[in-house]
Recover the amino acids of this structure.
């Protein structure tokens, strides 16, 4: 069994916290090859990351240090690299990459290593899943009626528990604390992470968060208010000056909500107490699914039909204004959350994780090891 890790945009933190444990797991039962460039714009690996894996035996390393290695962060895989991958012919390729073009030429199954997207249930930064795409949101495989019933029962106590957390603060109290106008139609806009290390934004429709705010604020009337929630890491790294300027020039149409150290809670409460959500490729679509809020999605990627996303801002605003906007299907949302939690997502640091477990996630999804473990515990 051969497993390839292709990691052109892995950050040092991601490598140490997530990828290194996955390499250890994969080495339990598979021949492992790692392709990764040297550090550039805080992506790739340095000496510290390699030292972290010195004790893992049998790993073949390809440090992609050719002069044009920065291009690998975009659509820059060279024919030579693709030739190496095709000759290797891995049974599974796990990639941290924004390059959809190169992946098309890789043999065998390829999975993108992505953050688990099941907010508000998953908040651990090390929990991940192996996705067939970058940002096709909400899709499920065919499931039998028995499997659907099992999943619904499994998610029920967690669903009630998380719902109770967000019932502790009433609507009026929250709107007052957030500075939102209760007399307007409120739309929550979770912003993307903006940083030189983030290469996923090359797939966004608009170039940055300021352009998004300007575009949306120019399309809404005075009866709407955009509740903008900045990404926590934007605040951490200080990428807020231009954002605050964009918010200020649109007056009461836009409100930047202070998340004050509790971004997961504030984002959830914002979604609950707003009338809809606008997202691009953000994982925050899951909050709209949990609370049943109508979604406008501005993206080149696909959304599952049950999310009932709108892709035209004019139609979305018109439906909200007239009370005709439709939210995601409640029953399908529960099913998707359960499937994502119990089947797809996992923590790479789980004890006993092996190559067989990783292969099972893509090779035999209906009978994967995780299903057996859940059912035995039920």
């Amino acid at each position: 069994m051969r497993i390839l890790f292709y990691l052109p945009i892995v950050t040092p933190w991601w490598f140490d916290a997530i990828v290194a444990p996955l390499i250890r797991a994969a080495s339990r039962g598979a021949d492992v090859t790692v392709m990764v460039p040297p550090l550039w714009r805080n992506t790739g690996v340095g000496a510290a990351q390699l030292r972290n894996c010195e004790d893992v035996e049998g790993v073949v390393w390809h440090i992609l240090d050719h002069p044009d290695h920065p291009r690998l962060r975009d659509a820059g895989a060279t024919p030579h690299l693709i030739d190496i991958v095709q000759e290797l012919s891995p049974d599974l390729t796990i990639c941290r990459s924004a390059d959809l073009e190169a992946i098309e030429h890789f043999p065998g199954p390829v999975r993108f290593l992505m953050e688990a997207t099941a907010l508000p249930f998953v908040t651990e930064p090390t929990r991940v899943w192996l996705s067939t795409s970058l940002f096709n949101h909400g899709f499920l495989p065919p499931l039998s009626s028995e499997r659907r019933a099992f999943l619904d029962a499994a998610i029920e106590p967690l669903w009630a528990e998380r719902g109770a957390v967000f019932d502790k603060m009433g609507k009026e109290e929250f709107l007052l604390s957030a500075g939102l106008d209760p007399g307007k139609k409120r739309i929550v806009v979770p912003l993307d992470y903006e940083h030189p290390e983030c290469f996923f934004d090359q797939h966004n429709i608009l170039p940055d968060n300021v352009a998004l705010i300007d575009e949306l604020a120019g399309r809404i009337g005075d009866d709407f208010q955009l509740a903008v929630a900045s990404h926590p890491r934007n605040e951490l790294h200080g990428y807020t000056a231009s954002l605050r300027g964009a918010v200020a020039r649109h007056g009461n149409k836009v409100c930047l909500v202070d998340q004050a150290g509790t971004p997961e809670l504030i984002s959830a409460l914002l979604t609950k107490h707003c009338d809809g959500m606008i997202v691009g490729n953000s994982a925050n679509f899951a909050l709209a699914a949990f609370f049943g809020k109508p979604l406008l999605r501005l993206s080149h990627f696909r959304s599952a039909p049950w999310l009932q996303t709108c892709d035209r801002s004019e139609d979305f605003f018109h439906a909200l204004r007239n009370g005709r906007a439709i939210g995601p299907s409640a029953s399908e949302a529960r099913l998707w959350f359960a499937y994502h939690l119990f089947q797809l997502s996992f923590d790479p640091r789980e004890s006993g994780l092996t190559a067989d477990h990783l292969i099972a996630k893509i090779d035999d999804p209906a009978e994967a090891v995780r299903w057996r473990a859940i059912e035995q515990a039920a």
User: Anything to note?
Assistant: The mean pLDDT is 90. Residues 2-116+346-377 form a domain with the Rossmann fold fold (CATH 3.40.50). The first strand starts at residue 2 and ends at 6.
